[in-house]
Amino acid sequence: MNPIYKTFSTLSGFYVYDRSTNSIINIERNEFDLLNKNDNQTIIQFKKKGYMKDNSIERIRHLSTDYLKHYLHNNIEQLTIQLTQNCNLRCSYCPYMGGYDNRKYSNKIISIETIRKGIDFLFAHSQNSKQIAIGFYGGEPLLEMPLLKEAVEYIEEVKEGREVVLTLTTNGTLLTDDNVEFFMKKSFQILISLDGAKEYHNANRVFPNGEGSFDVIMKKLRHIKEKYPTFFSKLTINSVISTNNDLSCSNDFFNADEVLEQLVVNMTTLSEHNSKDSILYDDSFKIINDFETCKAYLYMIGKISQRHVSKLYKSSIGQVNSIYKTLEPHEIKEKETHPGGPCLPGVSRLFMDVDGNFYPCERVSESSEIMRIGHIDSGIDIVKAKYLLNVGAITEQECINCFAFNFCKACCSSADGNTELSREKKLANCNNIKYSALTDMKLITMLKKFNYNFEESAYEEK
Q1: Ranges for the Radical SAM core domain (predicted)?
Q2: Is residue 98 part of a domain?
């Protein structure tokens, strides 16, 4: 017998996660102890109830492997276009600043010919996609506003009734009435980077002369709110909380600032992926992060009002509901399957750099040969895309026997070895993935214990 399961306990009870049915089962203390000893008789009793079936997986191979060519020809959903590798800021944690291995600043600008080829490629390979998205990225894309306008003009010429969503990621310092009115007219979705209170924003997000960008951005946002209130209300803020940022201070800033009060704020932390140095957050960050996350959970179970939930942590609610969907019961019967981490390379969020090279998304390393899955003149390399899709194959035996199989978030970028996928790099992430999976399961059992209704997604505000 070789069923894959994981026992865990919380303050409210004892549980076992059964991978064969993707189910969490509330068990007695004696069952918990016996399962921890892999007691055969106890396992047999669970088998009789339909749980703990023998591990059927013999090979790691993604179920979409044989269909990937079809998806890449017909189902591409998004193209992100890098307009330039230049930027008017020099943010300390930016991948282009040298602290990461994946990017570097340059004066390169994409040509309109390459943009048109990219747009043509997207429309030609998205016939089955009901809606497609085209994003503009940098560097700082607003440095090339005339080029961006020319790209949008071309999109309108060739879209022929297709539903196209236009997006832009910007540092916000170059926003003007002219381009705001253009974005309004073209219904752009805009993401603006703002890290929090002035002291901490300016510690990282600076102009080349070292001056902070906070006052410039806030002046722009205040003006947009006054002159274009409808457009302003649809903006989204991205806040990067770096290791030298006081989370408590930034948290208070976003909750209290009158200019930003109506905007959605997404919080991100620095990633160690491709970083040349270790990224360590201090204990105060962890304490505040846990406290604010806990308040979001207390709101979910109806114990506090929504007004007590920090804007930086409201996204936690949607994340929990996504985790719950991962736990939808299903039986693993396939001999050949793959952990749940990778998206379909090139299908979900294809990225094109200034030279016309294709990558699975904008988050991977542009200097990595293995992440370069094609070029606008030659198309996408199906063999390489399949290789990246099947990243789990490089740790096949570990994946076959892992309890966190259904929770795995490891994609090809976590195993980027520059010229090939790296087994060592992928395995280095496994303990964090298992820890995260176990934490997620404990959270789900706690919320269900307090009668949180996952089907309705949220409680009415008290």
Answers
A1: 73-314
A2: yes
Region 337-345 average pLDDT: 90
Residue type, 437: A
Are 164 and 235 found together in one domain? yes
With contact defined as beta carbons under 8 Å apart, do 26 and 14 qualify? yes
Which pTM was predicted?
0.92
Report the b/e string of 440-458 with b at 16+ CB within 10 A: bbbbbbbbbeeebebeeee
User: What does the buried/exposed string (b/e) look like for 337-355 if buried means 16 or more CB atoms within 10 Å of the residue's CB?
Assistant: bbbebbbbbbbebbbbbbe
Identify whether the C-beta of residue 269 lies closer than 8 Å to the C-beta of residue 315: no
- Do 140 and 286 have their domain in common? yes
Q: What is the DSSP pairing of strand 189-193 with strand 5-10?
A: unpaired
Query: What's the confidence (pLDDT) of residue 129?
Result: 96
| Number of domains the chain is built from | 2
Q: pLDDT tens digit string along 238-265? A: 999 988 888 999 899 999 999 999 999 9
27 and 100: one domain?
A: no
Q: Is residue 361 a contact partner of residue 79, using CB atoms and an 8 Å limit?
A: no
Q: What angle do CA 217, 220, 225 make, to 5 degrees?
A: 125
Q: Is residue 440 part of a domain?
A: no
The partner residues of 15 in beta bridges, in order of sequence, read: 8, 26
DSSP run (H or E) holding 27:
strand 23-27
Same domain, yes or no, for 79 and 182? yes
- Structure token digits, residue 141: 């894309």
Co-location of 178 and 116 in the same domain: yes
Structural domain boundaries enclosing 26? 1-54
Whether 212 is in a domain gets the answer: yes
Residues 50 and 70 in one domain: no
Question: Is residue 276 assigned to a domain?
Answer: yes
> Among all chains, which residue has been given the structure tokens 């948290």?
251
pLDDT at 104: 66
Structure-block tokens of residue 435: 């820890």
Q: Is the pLDDT of residue 33 over 70?
A: yes
- What CATH number is attached to the domain comprising 288? 3.20.20.70
Question: 166 and 223 share a domain?
Answer: yes
| Residue 441, strand partner residues | none
Q: Which helix (H) or strand (E) holds 216?
A: helix 214-227
363: nearest Cα among 413, 429, 423: 413
Distance CA 145, CA 167 (A): 14
